[in-house]
Amino acid sequence: xxxxxxxxxxxxxxxxxxxxxxxxxxxxxxxxxxxxxxxxxxxxxxxxxxxxxxxxxxxxxxxxxxxxxxxxxxxxxxxxxxxxxxxxxxxxxxxxxxxxxxxxxxxxxxxxxxxxxxxxxxxxxxxxxxxxxxxxxx
Length: 138
What we know:
Layout: H1 23-34, H2 41-55, H3 57-66, E1 70-76, H4 78-86, E2 91-101, H5 107-113, E3 114-124, H6 127-132
């Protein structure tokens, strides 16, 4: 028999959002899609968002530095939290992107080691950990 390996769950690389658009704006997007400028509505919207973010890049960089945010993916394992607890430290998690608290982190360990949690983007954690940290989320 072959070995069985447990795969770590794959994290999504995006999050679904919903927006409301006026009919004229939507029609113009559909026209551009039909004319072949974009492959679909989502392609148009992603491109528009990226263009705006590029225009505001300097302001974003300055805000990230001013608020001392970790940029991108930040993963907190059970071992990370146990190490902080052993050192008598409390974590102040500040992330712009995706903050992940490992699925094997028990809620009581999260409460004992995470003093504050400020995430601009998305937080991936078990429902129990999210509930345990609800009063520490900004």
